[in-house]
UniProtKB/TrEMBL annotation:
Keywords: Membrane, Transmembrane, Transmembrane helix. The keyword Transmembrane applies. It comes from the Bacteria. The chain crosses the membrane at residues 20-46, 58-79, 100-125, 145-163, 170-188, 208-228, 235-252. The lineage of its organism: Bacteria, Bacillati, Actinomycetota, Actinomycetes, Kitasatosporales. This is Uncharacterized protein. It comes from Streptomyces uncialis.
Length: 446
């Protein structure tokens, strides 16, 4: 009995388990989690409702807040033995320097990665009730977690090599500078960190091997730093360094070709009951009823007009017979699946509807622009028309020429509204036919 008790008393917890449950690592995880959670919560209206925007916001938060904090915590942990003056004492223990480094560095790195994944799961769940078709790219989220692990481990080595109190904040600042440089680089270098401002937004998805290549780049670089610092045979650092170099060359050389258009953003979903037809991208299909309802005052006026352009929300160059819908951007025009300014959306659509197609080149000269402007005003409800005119008159105060053009446009819109229905339909049919032929000036005067 006493022998069993004595045997149990000699069993000790693994150092990694002790570091995971006590010390700096849990507190570093809590700090990173609070920063990430606050950053996501403050901008919830900008990402909630779009899978790609949610993951973009997670990536920015992880790079701008999570990585510097996790890296600084790793630096502070790396200098712990120097602060305690136990470096020589630990060197005399049977455990090698590589094992000691990993036992001290991995808990903080794992805490940061786990907290990031927890915040990501919460954000994706918050996005679920408002998101449309498609799904999140889970491999991208896992790659971001690997990135946090690599940043923390490299920070631990930096803290061990330079055990100064200014090393943690200095390392965090250096990380931010590196991220800023790579994000603004014009070449494929910007893809070497998750801070990719061009392709993380909606409308693009990565090829299948991009997360894998990024993970090899991050882990290879961190592994090379660790082995070069703590391995007994330091030349073994060449193996992960070579893997990181191959992945980096592949990423840089491929560049933007690692991204392709989201198939859902190229496919239309249309409301065929509306005349003219109203279409949005399949990725935005839950918003189609809101868009159709917001545009109903406009489509009702054009229901019997032949040749009225169909309204499309696809992000491409419009073709003859089409007019682009304003872009549906989370946080700007859409918040949690609702249009936040239906009148503004209607006004912008009316302006697009009377503009010449992109294939026609520059807009018509000022002498011709009164006719499309009059149609634009007539398409608006009376309240929106009065609001638009009041705003334009305020902006043009003191400019007699612009004020005169506004008055002529308003008078032309009134004449169009006063025409008999049959004559107005015939005139609008001729207007849209001339617009399609890139010759709005050939429309008969009102």
């Amino acid at each position: 009995m006493s022998g069993t008790a004595r045997t149990r008393g000699t069993v000790r917890a693994h150092p990694v388990r002790a570091e995971l449950l006590r010390g700096l690592a849990p507190w570093a995880g809590v700090l990173v989690g609070c920063a990430l959670g606050l950053a996501m919560a403050l901008r919830a209206s900008w990402w909630q409702g779009s899978w790609s925007e949610t993951q973009s916001a997670l990536r920015y938060a992880g790079v701008l807040f999570g990585a510097p904090l996790a890296g600084a915590a790793g630096c502070w942990q790396g200098a712990r033995e120097h602060r305690r003056r136990t470096v020589e004492l630990l060197a005399s223990t049977p455990r090698g320097p590589l094992a000691r480094l990993l036992a001290a560095a991995l808990p903080g790195a794992l805490w940061s990665a786990a907290v990031y994944l927890l915040v990501a799961a919460a954000a994706l769940l918050a996005c679920l009730p408002y998101a449309g078709p498609g799904r999140p790219e889970f491999t991208a989220t896992l790659t971001d977690a690997v990135f946090l692990v690599a940043v923390t481990v490299i920070g631990h080595v930096c803290g061990s090599l330079v055990p100064r109190r200014l090393t943690p904040p200095g390392y965090a600042v250096v990380l931010l500078l590196v991220f800023s440089f790579t994000a603004t680089a014009s070449s494929g270098v910007r893809h070497l960190t998750p801070m990719d401002a061009e392709n993380v937004m909606s409308g693009s998805v990565a090829v299948w091997w991009q997360p894998l290549a990024s993970a090899v780049w991050f882990t290879g670089l961190a592994g090379a730093v660790v082995l070069a610092h703590a391995a007994r045979r330091r030349y073994t650092a060449l193996v992960p360094l070579a893997a990181a170099a191959v992945a980096a060359v592949l990423i840089v050389q491929t560049g933007d070709r690692m991204w392709r258009d989201d198939p859902l953003s190229r496919r239309e979903v249309c409301d065929t009951k509306a005349v003219p037809e109203v279409c949005v991208a399949a990725s935005e299909s839950p918003l189609l009823p809101r868009v159709t309802a917001a545009l109903s005052p406009l489509t009702d006026k054009l229901a019997d007009v032949e040749g009225a352009p169909r309204l499309t929300g696809l992000r491409r160059e419009t073709r003859p017979g089409e007019a682009p819908l304003p872009e549906l951007r989370p946080g700007l025009s859409v918040v949690r699946g609702e249009l936040i300014d239906a009148t503004g959306y209607l006004t912008a659509t009316a302006s697009n509807l009377v503009a010449p197609p992109a294939v026609c080149g520059p807009p018509a000269p000022d002498g011709v622009s009164e006719v499309p402007g009059a149609v634009e005003l007539w398409l608006l409800p009376s309240s929106a028309r009065a609001e638009w005119l009041a705003r334009q008159r305020g902006w043009a105060a003191g400019d007699t020429g612009e004020l005169a053009r506004l008055e002529r446009r308003a008078e032309a819109a009134e004449r169009l509204a006063g025409l008999p229905d049959e004559r107005r339909r015939a005139w609008l049919t001729g207007f849209f036919a001339a617009l399609k032929d890139c010759a709005p000036g050939k429309t008969p005067p009102l």
